[in-house]
Amino acid sequence: MSLRGGLPSSLRNLENLKQLELQLNNLRGGIPDWFGDLINLEKLNLSGNSFYGEVPEVLSKLIKLRELELQDNDLGTIPCSALAAVAVLSANCKSSDGTSCDCCTLCV
Question: What is the pTM of this model?
Answer without folding.
Answer: 0.84
